[in-house]
Amino acid sequence: MYFVELANTLNFRKAAEKLGVSQPTLTAQISALEETVSLSLFERSRTGTFLSPQGRAVLASAKQLVTSMNHFEETAKALAEGPATTFRMGVPPTLGPYLLPFVLPDMHARYESLKLYVREEAPRSLSQSLLAGEYDLIISPLSADSPELSSVPLFTEPLKFVVPTDHRLSGEDWVSPQDIRGESVLILEEHHHFHGQVRDICASLGANVLRDFEGTSLDTLRQMVVMGIGVTFLPGLYIHSELHRPEALHVCELKGLPIMRQHSLVWRHGSPARVLFRELAMTLRQIIKQQLGDVVLVN
C-alpha cells in the first residue's frame, strides 16, 4: 500500500498525508520494503522522486495485491457484520419517493440492523457511480450491460397517459394510439432516463414533444398538464402516490399498447455483500408484490 501510493503521487509528503502517516514513517516503510525485495524501487534526486525501472516492473503486481487485500478486508467485514453494515443505495428521483415509503418499513422490520443511506441520482449517473464505488447498490431502470455488474429484476411499472380534465380525451379509460398523433406532450429534462423513453414513444406515435417546456420533476409535469399546457406520460407509482386530487386531471391507458419500464436491483459483480444483495432483492420483490401488487407487475 505504501509503495503503490508513493508510486501514484511521486511525492513523499503527499503520499504520507493520503496514508495518514508521518513522512519519516513512510520513508522507513519504503526503505524496509526495498531491503526485503532487494530492489531499489524509486530514484531520489533534487528534482524529485521517480519510479526506478524495477519499480515500474513490479507496480502492476503491487496494485493487484492491494486490490486483493482490500477485497479480503471487505469480505471479512461483510461476513462479520452481515446486515448490520450501512450500505449506500442510489435511486432515480422519478422512483425513490414513490416506492421507498411503501417498502422500507417492511424491510426494516425484517432486517432490523440493516441501514441504507439513500441518495437520488439520474440512472446513467447511478450506474457510473456504482462502478466507481460511490454506491454499494442501486435501483435502476437501465439493464446491467457491464460485465462488472449483477442485477435482479424487481418489478415492471406501467406508464399512464395523463390529460387535463377539459381535454377531448378526458373521461376515456382507454384511448387509441392514433388519438395521440399530433398531441403536444410534456417531457422531463434530458438527463432523466424517463426523458428518452417518452421521447421514443412520441416518435413512434407521431406526437409532438414540447422541448421548450421540459419539466424538472414529475410534479412540474403534472402542474403543467393541470394548467393545460399539454399532455404527458407519468409512472404508475407516481400516480398512486401523489394524485391526491384526481379530479384535477384524467389518467388513462393506450389501447393495445402497454407502456412499461422495468426496475432492477444492481450491484458490483465482485461485491463481498453480493449474497446479501441477492437476498435483499428477493425480499424487495415480495414486499412490493404485497404492498403495490395492484400498481406494478412483479413477475
Automatic annotation (TrEMBL):
<dbReference type="InterPro" id="IPR005119">
    <property type="entry name" value="LysR_subst-bd"/>
</dbReference>
<dbReference type="InterPro" id="IPR036388">
    <property type="entry name" value="WH-like_DNA-bd_sf"/>
</dbReference>
<dbReference type="InterPro" id="IPR036390">
    <property type="entry name" value="WH_DNA-bd_sf"/>
</dbReference>
<protein>
    <submittedName>
        <fullName>Hyaluronan synthase</fullName>
    </submittedName>
</protein>
<dbReference type="Pfam" id="PF03466">
    <property type="entry name" value="LysR_substrate"/>
</dbReference>
<dbReference type="GO" id="GO:0003700">
    <property type="term" value="F:DNA-binding transcription factor activity"/>
</dbReference>
<dbReference type="Pfam" id="PF00126">
    <property type="entry name" value="HTH_1"/>
</dbReference>
<comment type="similarity">
    <text>Belongs to the LysR transcriptional regulatory family.</text>
</comment>
<keyword id="KW-0238">DNA-binding</keyword>
<dbReference type="GO" id="GO:0003677">
    <property type="term" value="F:DNA binding"/>
</dbReference>
<keyword id="KW-0805">Transcription regulation</keyword>
<feature type="domain" description="HTH lysR-type">
    <location>
        <begin position="1"/>
        <end position="52"/>
    </location>
</feature>
<dbReference type="InterPro" id="IPR000847">
    <property type="entry name" value="LysR_HTH_N"/>
</dbReference>
<dbReference type="GO" id="GO:0032993">
    <property type="term" value="C:protein-DNA complex"/>
</dbReference>
<keyword id="KW-0804">Transcription</keyword>
<keyword id="KW-0010">Activator</keyword>
